[in-house]
């Protein structure tokens, strides 16, 4: 890549979009190849070196159902003293929270699925039961002093129930907001959403609570993920999930392919003039070129022919060739 593609770093970080890196969890959980703990740790460290700070490091799930996350505690142990890293653990129940607290997570994300069809297959409990579990987990997390994000999955469609109306998503959100989340996220788990849905749902969430920070999680299964990200930013979302290399998917949702790629998202936001938050101690923006190189590396580690992301292949905005003498 001839010229590094980087993001803007505004004086007021609060006005910038925050990128939450999810490759170590969502990126790896659906891949057939099981990576060693050392490789997962290296993925996180490369992300931090490129300037990413909030990283979804692992999930505390049953090893027999999600074997890619079986070493959650080992990964966290290796990263316990990593400077500048905010270690996010995904949890599905109270036992998962207890494991995350013991392992030293800085924050947790709790999944509540908007559709009963996927909820039952993903967690063995319907949506109402998951909202009740979230409320208990949120209270315990507050008592422990760590932030808890609630993520409403299948907010744009379900592989089993089909359409998920915005009214249903907002009904679930209302129940989740009662638990007092530090952040509320919406996820297009199977990559079926379009910008009009994003705008409608985010506006509805803002009407329910104008103060809670909003986050969005998109998959690019049908090439709408990046358009949805732009729509989310325009609607007022303050954080976007992305996965280095564009790897990822849900093992319980048929056909759910990769997340939007961190490097491609950074290029899109940068060229659109959208500021992206950077908390690098030495200052400066996120290093999209380094992230793209990591995307190529992790795809190779997974045995993929190439990373789904495009920036590692095409490079950043081309530098004009010198005029002939």
Describe the structure.
The chain has 325 residues and is of the alpha/beta class. The protein has a single domain, classed as Aldolase class I (TIM Barrel). It has helices at residues 23-27, 37-49, 72-78, 94-103, 116-123, 127-144, 166-177, 195-208, 225-235, 262-271, 288-301, 311-314; strands at residues 18-21, 54-60, 86-91, 107-113, 148-153, 183-188, 214-218, 239-242. Strands 1-8-7-6-5-4-3-2 form an eight-stranded parallel sheet. The two termini are 25 Å apart.
Q: Would you summarize the structure shown here?
A:
The chain has helices spanning 23-27, 37-49, 72-78, 94-103, 116-123, 127-144, 166-177, 195-208, 225-235, 262-271, 288-301, 311-314, and strands at 18-21, 54-60, 86-91, 107-113, 148-153, 183-188, 214-218, 239-242.
């Amino acid at each position: 890549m001839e010229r590094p593609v980087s993001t803007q770093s505004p004086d007021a970080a609060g006005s910038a979009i925050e990128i939450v890196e999810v490759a170590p969890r969502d990126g790896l959980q659906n891949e057939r190849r099981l990576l060693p703990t050392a490789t997962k740790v290296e993925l996180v460290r490369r992300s931090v070196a490129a300037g990413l700070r909030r990283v979804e490091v692992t999930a505390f799930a049953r090893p027999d159902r999600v074997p890619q996350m079986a070493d959650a505690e080992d990964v966290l142990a290796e990263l316990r003293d990593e400077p500048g890293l905010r270690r996010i653990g995904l949890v599905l129940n109270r036992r998962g929270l207890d494991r995350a607290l013991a392992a030293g997570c800085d924050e947790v994300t709790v999944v509540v699925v908007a559709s009963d069809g996927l909820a039952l297959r993903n967690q063995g409990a319907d949506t109402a039961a998951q909202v009740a579990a979230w409320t208990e987990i949120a209270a315990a997390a507050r008592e422990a002093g760590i932030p808890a994000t609630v993520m409403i999955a299948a907010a744009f469609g379900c592989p089993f129930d089909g359409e998920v109306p915005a009214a249903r998503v907002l009904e679930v959100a209302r129940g989740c907001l009662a638990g007092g989340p530090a952040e509320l996220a919406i996820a297009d788990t199977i990559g079926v959403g379009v910008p009009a849905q994003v705008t409608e749902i985010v506006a509805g969430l803002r009407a329910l609570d104008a103060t809670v920070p909003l986050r969005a999680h998109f998959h690019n299964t049908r090439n709408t993920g990046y358009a949805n990200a732009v729509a989310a930013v325009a609607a007022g979302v303050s954080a976007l999930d992305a996965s280095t290399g564009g790897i990822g998917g849900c093992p319980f949702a048929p056909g759910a392919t990769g997340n939007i790629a961190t490097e491609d998202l950074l290029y899109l936001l940068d060229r659109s003039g959208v500021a992206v938050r950077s908390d690098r101690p030495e200052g400066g923006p996120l290093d999209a070129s380094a992230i793209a190189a990591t995307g190529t590396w992790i795809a190779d580690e997974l045995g993929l022919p190439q990373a789904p992301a495009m920036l590692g292949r095409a490079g950043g905005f081309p530098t004009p060739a010198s005029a002939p003498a």
